[in-house]
Write a structure and sequence with these properties.
Largest sheet: 9 strands, mixed
Structural class: alpha+beta
Radius of gyration: 21 Å
Number of strands: 18
Order of helices and strands: EEHEHEEHEHEHEHEHEEEEEEEEE
Shape: globular
Number of helices: 7
Distance between the termini: 41 Å
Length: 342
Amino acid sequence: MSNIKRLVIILFISALGASAQVVGREPNQNWQPSRTWVVAVGILEWQHSDSWDSFPQAGRKDVELVEFFKRAGVPQNQILFLKDREATKERIQRSMTRLLARAQEGDMLIFYFTGHGAQDEAGATYFANYDADDDFAQTAWSVRSIFDTIERNFKGSRVLLTADCCYSGALANEAARRRTSISYAVLTSSRYNSLSTANWTFTEALLSGFRGNAKVDQNLDGEIELSELAHYARARMWSVEEQRTAFTTTKDFSPEMGLVEVWKRANSRINERVEVLWEDDWYPATILEVRGSKYKIHYLGYDTEWDEWVDAARLRRMRPTITPASGKNVYLNFSPTITSLN
């Protein structure tokens, strides 16, 4: 079990209801915190420490995520957070069942798990509760049982599962197999057969999206949609961890579900596409931050290690080219084969 990384799972169950009106989208495709239920399970230490390595308690993002949902308007009595020793398999299942039974039709559930994940030889995936041991197929919490608990007890219509863990893409595989009236969406840090980083990179990306970070808003419409969050998480995981994510939806779960409005767009140039002068050549880039006359930019197609602060003299607006066929302005594309500025 030494190669098993830290697991973070977040299951979001979203349903009808809206947090904001958006042009071109039905209100019931938006997230409504007041009708959301949260089950959060955070485990960074285990009863059988010889089977599961512990993780540092400092800077844990599970606590930060739960605090976000509280501030976002999820009622306190609709939030359950079990940490470390509290999170035995029996208590997790019992508490989750009890909470789901209180939800009403059209409500939303968010389930979050952080800890270890494992996969047996047959490909079945498990999450390590506090009292799981080496025989994880018998003592740990299976991905299949999570779906079973939801479908037996939850009265809502939509479920979003997202995971920051080894083999987290197994959630997508299981969602595709289910025969239920519930519509699923799955966003995970890795594929079903891949390990995941032991860092909090994916969870930090989720926090950025739910907090309304302008960098996540790709189409600059002032709101972050689920698909935009998925795209941002994919970009962050690849550039920081060289790890591939998974994102899928089933039935009528809209990937364009609205999550939150962008906040503190302090400067209209944030997210603007520009060209940056670098050693006599102009490169396509995006403005990330603005501080006075200085601009933090990200070169399109490059890793974040190339992000830098530049002054206005090195910037110009993205130059369009005219396509003969349509006569429309089309911005210059950046060659994906270029991997270095050197």
